[in-house]
Amino acid sequence: LDYLLHHLPNVPSKIVYCSSISVYGIDSSLPYRSGNGVLMDENFKVDPIRTYSLSKVFGERLVTEWCNEHGVKCQIVRIGTVYDYSGQQNNFLGYLINAINKNQTFNVSAPLGQLWNFVYIKDICRWLFNAIRIAETPGIINLTSSENHTTEDIISIIKENYEEFKYSIPESTAFRGVDKGFCSIKRETHL
């Protein structure tokens, strides 16, 4: 990233840097802890816990400093948990879609009350295009959905739309992860 910034063929008027919501310290490997309905937003504490999320924080700072030095507008967007309908994502919804596509029984490995926020890949593309076009740079924006659903909500939605959907809920599972609910007011306002 540093090399790219210092070897651009010309200085742009604006840079949109794609970061990740992982900078908030979302750790799916720890025992489950409820967020008690608190939705994360752009003011939520940045707490990188993995090398990937630390690299995103570092990239945000590199870009911000470079833009400040060169008088370039800087827009940082933190991309949420993305899905498409292929089932190739390594997350709850990806595994669920994959089970549906293969007509397999889905093993629900998340607490029924856990909050999720998934964003469709085409929405991300549209919002990135809008981020390039907006004149102002309103600070960091999370590219997350305006809809947060519990595991139980997601299972119910799938059951309503796919009669052949089969799932099981293990009785003795030690659930892992955190609530991943997001407030999207800033994204809705600007993008």
Keywords:
191 residues; alpha/beta; 9 strands; elongated
Q: What separation lies between the terminal Cα atoms?
A: 25 Å
Low-confidence sequence ranges? none
The largest sheet, given as strand count, sense and whether it forms a barrel, is:
3 strands, parallel
Report the portion of residues in β strands.
Answer: 15-25%
Note the total helix count.
Answer: 6
Helix content: 25-40%
The largest sheet has its strands arranged as: 1-2-7
What class do helices, strands and sheet pairing give?
alpha/beta
The total count of strands amounts to: 9
Residue-averaged pLDDT: 91
> Gyration radius, to the nearest Å?
19 Å
Anisotropy-based shape: elongated
Question: H/E order of the elements?
Answer: HEHEEHEEEHEEHEH
Overview of the molecule:
By secondary structure, the protein is of the alpha/beta class. 34% of the residues lie in helices and 16% in strands. The protein contains six helices and nine strands. The chain has helices at residues 2-6, 51-70, 92-101, 121-133, 151-161, 185-190, and strands at 14-20, 73-79, 81-83, 106-107, 115-116, 118-120, 141-143, 149-150, 167-168. It is elongated, with a radius of gyration of 19 Å. The two termini are 25 Å apart.
SSE order and pairing:
Blueprint: H1 2-6, E1 14-20, H2 51-70, E2 73-79, E3 81-83, H3 92-101, E4 106-107, E5 115-116, E6 118-120, H4 121-133, E7 141-143, E8 149-150, H5 151-161, E9 167-168, H6 185-190
Parallel strand pairs: 1-2, 2-7, 3-6, 4-9
Antiparallel strand pairs: 5-8
